């Protein structure tokens, strides 16, 4: 299974939804909270090509994007293949 990394914030409902979807699939992920961490947020923004919103999700080397993109990949039937690596 591919490594999953999610940059998130504790009070973000989109982060919660994304984590719930991943958990419903039994996916373990590494969560990096950017709350009060300007250096981590800057790292996330750089890695995400300038995107500053959370969550920002990577599956393996693929930047999925945010919650909407994660759910779109699920609806398109692409998420399981990404997770399989």
Automatic annotation (TrEMBL):
PROSITE patterns: GLUTAREDOXIN_1, GLUTAREDOXIN_2. One of its GO terms (biological process) is cell redox homeostasis. GO terms for cellular component: cytoplasm. Keywords: Cytoplasm, Disulfide bond, Electron transport, Redox-active center, Transport. CDD domains: GRX_GRXb_1_3_like. Residues 4-64 form the Glutaredoxin domain. GO terms for molecular function: glutathione disulfide oxidoreductase activity. Belongs to the glutaredoxin family. Has a glutathione-disulfide oxidoreductase activity in the presence of NADPH and glutathione reductase. Reduces low molecular weight disulfides and proteins. This is Glutaredoxin.
């Amino acid at each position: 299974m591919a490594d999953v990394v999610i940059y998130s914030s504790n009070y973000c409902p989109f982060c919660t939804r994304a984590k719930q979807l991943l958990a419903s699939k039994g996916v373990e992920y590494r969560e990096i909270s950017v709350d009060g961490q300007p250096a981590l947020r800057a790292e996330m923004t750089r890695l995400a090509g300038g995107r500053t919103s959370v969550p920002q999700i990577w599956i393996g080397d693929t930047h999925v994007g945010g919650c909407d993109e994660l759910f779109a990949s699920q609806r398109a039937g692409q998420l399981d293949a990404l997770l399989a690596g």
